[in-house]
Automatic annotation (TrEMBL):
PANTHER family the record matches: THIOREDOXIN REDUCTASE 1-RELATED-RELATED (PTHR48105)
Keywords, ordered alphabetically: Flavoprotein, Oxidoreductase
Protein name: Thioredoxin reductase (NADPH)
Molecular functions per Gene Ontology: oxidoreductase activity
Phylogenetic lineage: Bacteria, Pseudomonadati, Thermodesulfobacteriota, Desulfovibrionia, Desulfovibrionales
Residue ranges annotated for the FAD/NAD(P)-binding domain, each copy included: 5-283
Length: 309
């Protein structure tokens, strides 16, 4: 028989884990889906989270997973393939083909970071390759680094890095930002390489260099890939979710409610700032609210059943 959960959480990053902890503490029957290593936090090194000194993202997530399980959360490390509304419930199908029904959902899938798709990128992830200047920039103090991307995240990231890194290259085939921001990068000493593309990231146990398609080689210790994030149009299409004006993020209110009753969202999927603290706070609210919604739904169903007896 298809099992019914009070709360099903999509995503096992900081927002999803915090939602699971709080929903389970509310005595809800909670299922959390997703692979932790897909969270951008998993590969990060954290030093700007309240009350926490330097720690790896992997350590944070492993601890959070243990906490959620201790409070009763069931965890399945598979991704959701489909979500279909089913009356006031939702039917989910995961990779293995198993299906579940949820009274409420918490969407905490984060945003998918765009990849370069070049040799060395995957192999050196967390070893000098990063997708977050704010997360990992501090670990390259007095080191030469490169930022790849042509929009505000990349150009702004190069400016941030210029204050700590020994040398910063900003690389892209074209730039689509306000002229003032690009000028600021130049003023900060950032070397801007226009009409340039990355061919490969070099290194074995750590990044040692960057190879461009024109044959140029840069000696760098870090490569920050800031190509933007994919939107959530696929999810919105199946559930009818309302997105923000950029069509990239799910629109929520202060209780993390979406426009669909019973569907909540938390973390990067709700938009910037893409920070752990924000994800955890929103996950807390979403988990509590989803558990309360599920309880009200069950109570209403019980009362309706009594009336028909």
């Amino acid at each position: 028989m298809n099992r019914i959960y009070d709360v099903v959480i999509l995503g096992s990053g900081p927002g999803g884990i915090q939602a699971a902890i709080h929903a389970s503490r509310k005595k809800a029957d909670v299922l959390m889906l997703g692979r932790m290593h897909k969270s951008s936090l998993f590969w990060a090194h954290v030093e700007n989270f309240c009350c926490q000194l330097k720690i790896t993202g992997e350590e944070m997530l492993e601890t959070g997973k243990m906490q959620a399980e201790n409070f009763g959360t069931e965890i399945i490390e598979e991704d959701v393939l489909s979500i279909l509304p089913q009356g006031k419930h939702f039917q989910l199908t995961i990779e293995s083909g198993r299906t579940f029904t949820a009274r409420s959902l918490v969407l905490a899938t984060g945003t998918s970071r765009n990849r370069l798709g070049v040799p060395g990128e995957k192999e050196l992830l967390g070893k000098g390759v990063s997708y977050c200047v704010e997360c990992d920039g501090g670990f390259f103090r007095n080191e030469p680094v490169a930022v790849v991307g042509g929009q505000s995240a990349a150009v702004g990231g190069s400016v941030t890095l210029s204050h700590t890194a020994s040398k910063v290259w900003l690389i892209n085939d074209r730039f689509d930002v306000a002229p003032e921001l690009l000028a600021q990068a130049r003023e900060q000493g950032v070397t801007i390489l226009e009409n340039a593309e990355v061919a490969a990231i070099e290194g074995e146990n750590a990044v040692t260099g960057l190879q461009l398609k024109d044959g140029t080689r840069l000696d760098v210790a870090g490569v920050f890939i800031e190509l933007g994030a994919k939107g959530v149009l696929e999810l919105a299409a199946t559930l009818g979710l309302e997105l923000d004006e950029t069509m990239k993020y799910v629109q929520t209110d202060k209780k993390q409610r979406t426009n669909i009753p019973g569907v909540y969202a938390a973390g990067d999927i709700c938009g910037p700032p893409l920070q752990i603290a924000k994800a955890v706070g929103e996950g807390c609210v979403a988990g509590i609210e989803a558990a309360s919604y599920s309880k009200r739904l069950k109570t209403a169903q019980t009362d309706a059943d009594k009336e028909t007896d």
